[in-house]
């Protein structure tokens, strides 16, 4: 799901003739159940890297102790 959403954001940038950059992507924060900090990530728009929450079901992939969603 994450990869498909990223593809949609790139397609949207192409359609609007914006420079293609994942640094401006923000739809990933709107996924149901996402627990990543929205305000902090919106302030970072245009800069590389995002802030993820380890307990997010979509983006908490770095928590090696997770065994199920």
Number of strands: 0
Query: What summary fits the major beta sheet?
Result: none
Share of helix, binned: 25-40%
**How many distinct folded domains?**
1
The class by helix and strand makeup works out as mainly alpha
Q: What is the gyration radius calculated from CA atoms?
A: 13 Å
**Which spans have pLDDT < 50 for at least 5 consecutive residues?**
none
Number of helices: 2
Instruction: Give the amount of beta strand, in percent.
Output: under 5%
H and E order: HH
What is the subunit arrangement here?
single chain
Compute the separation of the termini in Å: 14 Å
Mean pLDDT: 90
Question: What general form does the structure show?
Answer: globular
Description:
- There is one protein chain.
- The chain is mostly helical and 69 residues long.
- It has one domain (1-69).
- It has helices spanning 2-15, 38-43.
- The model has no long low-confidence stretch (mean pLDDT 90).
Features:
69 residues; mainly alpha; 2 helices
In short:
By secondary structure, the chain is mainly α.
């Amino acid at each position: 799901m994450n990869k498909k959403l990223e593809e949609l954001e790139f397609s949207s940038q192409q359609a609007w003739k914006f420079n293609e950059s994942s640094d401006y992507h923000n739809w990933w924060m709107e996924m149901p159940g996402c627990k990543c900090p929205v305000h902090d990530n919106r302030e970072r728009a245009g800069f590389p890297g995002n802030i993820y929450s380890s307990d997010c079901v979509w983006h908490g992939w770095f928590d090696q102790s997770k065994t199920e969603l």
